[in-house]
Known about the structure:
Shape: globular
CATH class: Alpha Beta
Order of helices and strands: HHHEHEHEEEEHEE
Mean pLDDT: 76
Helix content: 40-55%
CATH architecture: 3-Layer(aba) Sandwich
Radius of gyration: 17 Å
Distance between the termini: 42 Å
Number of helices: 6
Strand content: 15-25%
Number of domains: 1
Low-confidence stretches: 26-32
Amino acid sequence: MNLNNLNNIFTKIKYYFFRPLTYINIFFARLSKPSKLKILQWKKVISLFNEYDCKTLLEFGSGRSTIFFIKNLENFNEFLSINPNTEIKFTEIVREKYKSLNIKKNCKIINSETQISNISLKPAVNFFTYPFSDNYDLIYIDGRHNMIDELIKYLKKNNYKYKLTDSGLLNYTIIFV
């Protein structure tokens, strides 16, 4: 066995060892749609949004969380939800649901070109090809944990100061910029 294979195996073991509560979330997600833990996660995002008096939200990944935020967030100036072009049909479902709610809020649900990048030795969707504004108070990345590493690299490269906190139980990471 060569050194690259050993490094790949060690990386996988380390990833699964440090994220055991992910399996709890997956288990509960299969029991109910959306899971109770997912709803707690979304409520935590809303409480942080309100606590820090945020006005703008950028979400990577459109779906049930998008609709939950639209229904439950108040006092926001802009909400942008970005989904990959490969998921246009799913994004259309979310857009139709948003329209059916007849809620008049400044919300954009869009598709974007993305790249598949190797992030932490795993192929992942990289949204950084989209020219979004860097003026968002809160960024929510739903289900794309490897994007956190890319976001940290972006923040460091552009000399942003940030603080990172996370919860294994609720399966979220928060980056304060």
